[in-house]
Amino acid sequence: SRRRHTRFKCDWSSDVCSSDLEAGLIQTSLVIGFAIALFISSYCSDFYNPNRILSIYLVINFLSSFIFYLVAKDFWTAIFINFFIGFAQGGIYGPSILLVSEKFKSKNKGSAMGVMLGSQSFGYAISLTLSYIITTNYGYKISFLTASLISLIGAAFLLAATYQDFYKKYQFTKLNKKFSLNQNKIGRAHV
């Protein structure tokens, strides 16, 4: 069974990688991109409108999957483009949590976060299933094309849903300064 799985992996990606090590490195580039984007998008969401940040990462998500479809022909292009696919996925995560937290009252935040995170996980499971079916029947390139088109449709739905908030001005820098000044005053009062 293990040997069969390994053969399948090399069969579908034989244009891109020639060994299990190369396939693992391509996957690792995705995880590294994801981790870097989590830090960047979460940090930027404190200072800029999270709707805009989310939109930027949604565009990167579409473009990176579409560019993979067009360009990835060897190990190095796959590693580079897959990094950006992970970067886009990580960039979507932080701002989406902030937006859900902002939109719901305290008593509903837990269930709202659960629905959002559960939806993301469920979407990932559906994506893997569809990718397997499409890759098996039509090849990995069509699978990436399908993923990019679905992410474009998802981005359009999100932008339509958050259109009113997209141009909203956030004043997080002033709030952060006020918060840190209050902390200093509280700290001095207890000393």
Average pLDDT confidence is 77
Largest sheet: none
Give the termini separation: 66 Å
Helix proportion range: over 70%
Query: What Rg is obtained from the alpha carbons, in whole angstroms?
Result: 20 Å
Contiguous helical run count: 8
Note the beta-strand portion. Answer: under 5%
Order of helices and strands: HHHHHHHH
Class from helix and strand fractions: mainly alpha
Shape: globular
Low-confidence stretches: 1-13, 175-191
Count of DSSP E strands? 0
Summarize the structure.
The protein is mostly helical and 191 residues long. The protein is built from 8 helices and no strands.
What does this entry look like structurally?
Helices cover 86% and strands 0% of the residues. With 191 residues, it is mainly alpha-helical.
What does the secondary structure layout of this molecule look like, with pairings?
Layout (H helix, E strand, L loop, with lengths): L1 H11 L7 H25 L5 H22 L3 H29 L2 H33 L1 H22 L1 H4 L5 H19 L1
Helix pairs in contact: 2-4, 3-4, 3-6, 4-5, 5-6
What distinguishing features does this structure have?
single chain; 191 residues; mainly alpha; 8 helices; 0% strand; globular; disordered N terminus; disordered C terminus
